[in-house]
Amino acid sequence: MRRYVLRVVLVMGATFFLCSCSLTSVKRAKFLYGSDEATVITPITCSSIEYNLVEVKRKDVKNKAFLNALETEMRKLEPYEKTDLPREVDIRIKLIVDYKNETSDTLCLGGFYGTILNGNLMEDNPKLLDLIKSKIY
Asked: Which domain of life is it from (predicted)?
């Protein structure tokens, strides 16, 4: 009986330890976002979202499950290679991702398409856009 109790305690302790350890290197995500359907005269850029978009909202997220999913989807981003098709992105979501090693990434997304990571145009990842929209809207 003692061995059984000891095993249960060890398993519970190991489970607690593993659950408390973060699987992600992301510390937090800070969002600035506005409506997908907001009408503007000129396209919103990553640097002008705070000034040119009406009713900008802010949100700070530290949920480990969300941050883990965010990091997983961000790793899947690949550079936009179609040089014959120029692309302008009308930004509606700006996300600053802070990592535990004190670095950060800036991810800017259009309301329906367009992805810019640290100033570089990337291929769209619909799953990433849906994940982010599910957290902020």
From this structure: Bacteria
Cβ atoms of 123 and 77 closer than 8 Å: yes
Beta carbons within 8 Å of 28's beta carbon, 6+ residues apart:
60, 61, 62, 67, 97, 98
Q: In degrees rounded to 5, what are phi and psi of residue 28?
A: -165, 165
Largest CA distance in the chain: 74
pTM for the predicted model, two decimal places: 0.79
Of 103, 37, 31, 33, nearest in space to 70 by CA: 31
Q: Find tokens 């700006």 and name the residue.
A: 94
d(CA 35, CA 33): 7
Phi, psi of 97 (to 5 degrees): -100, 115
pLDDT in tens, 61-110: 999 999 999 999 999 999 998 877 667 889 999 999 999 999 999 999 99
**Backbone angles phi and psi of 129, in degrees to 5:** -60, -45
Distance CA 82, CA 99 (A): 30
Backbone angles phi, psi at 73, to 5 degrees: -70, -35
